[in-house]
Amino acid sequence: MTTAPLLTLNNGVQMPALGLGVFQTPPAETVAAVQAALATGYRHIDTAAAYGNEREVGQAIAASGLDRSDVFIETKIWISDYGYEATLHAFDKSAGKLGVDQIDLLILHQALPSAFDRTVDAYRALEQLLTDGKVRAIGVSNFMRTHLDQLLAQTGVVPAVNQIEVHPYFRQPDVLAADTEHGILTQAWSPIGGITHYRGDESRSTFNDPTLLQIATAHSKSAAQVMLRWHLQQGRSVIPKSVKPARIAENFDVFDFQLTRTELDAIDALDTGVRGGPEPEAITLEAFGRDIPEA
pLDDT tens across 228-277, in order? Predict the structure, then answer.
């Protein structure tokens, strides 16, 4: 069975470079999607407290027959649970739903610029969980350069991962550079530009892009596979999402070809600078806060 190559995080922990994301996957469909991924060869599952499907991710992993140590579990703390004690309890909620004692990678879901002191307190809780061995690595998501600078000035552990929106139409080169400067691994959410597709504007969908389709034809691959290969060759972690077993398998079939330097540059050149997700600076508790249920 094919397995994804491993990336070594800045604390020495190894993480499969390609995982299954379950953003917007309904709980009722999550178990089957994760089971299909594990049967295909995925060994990295990315979820979040705010997705409402941690319990189903845990159920699928438990039913897989795989050793717990063989599956890398990543989840995220939502902004409503920021604050030192609240974040420690948020770990208990997530671990309880996942059915595990230890989480491989636990990250903060947003920077919460309007209450950054709470963000710092939340990250300090992650540092304590790391010290206590309850998590193997800690990180952040949707942190821009300024957020990273603020966090690093007030905490002691450099994030292992920064999960951000990255795809050919939105590369975020400044954040990619900031992550590299600090030894932080960039993990791409919406790595194949799905966010450009389900927004409803088919003319801007990466899946229909002529450059990507031309490169795909040259390698007898799909546009999605070309985009995933682009990320992997540039050293990023990717977590494509799907609930369709055939698509889940297709997204994993990206380890048998190489893009040329010219092809990589051509994909880089597709960047429009237009963000698909919410502006990180616009994240506030008032607009985005939600209660995260107990385990």
Answer: 999 999 999 999 999 999 999 999 999 999 999 999 999 999 999 999 99
Strand 161-165 vs strand 44-46: parallel, antiparallel, or unpaired? unpaired
**Tokens found for residue 116:** 């950054």
Pairing of strands 161-165, 237-238: unpaired
**Per-residue model confidence (pLDDT) at position 205:** 87
Q: Does the pLDDT value for residue 191 go beyond 60?
A: yes
| The pLDDT value given to residue 203 | 59
**Structural domains present in the chain:** 6-273 (3.20.20.100)
Confirm if 120 and 92 have CB atoms less than 8 A apart.
Answer: no
* Concatenated DSSP letters of 109-153: S---GGGHHHHHHHHHHHHHHHHTTSEEEEEEES--HHHHHHHHH
Give catalytic residues, as residue numbers: 51
Instruction: Name the pLDDT band for 209 (thresholds 50, 70, 90).
Output: very high
Token pair of 49 as six digits: 């407290």
Where residue 183 falls (left for φ over 0; alpha for ψ -120 to 50; beta otherwise) is left
User: Is the pTM for the entire model greater than 0.90?
Assistant: yes
Residue 74 has, within 13 A of its CA and on its CB side, a CA count of: 33
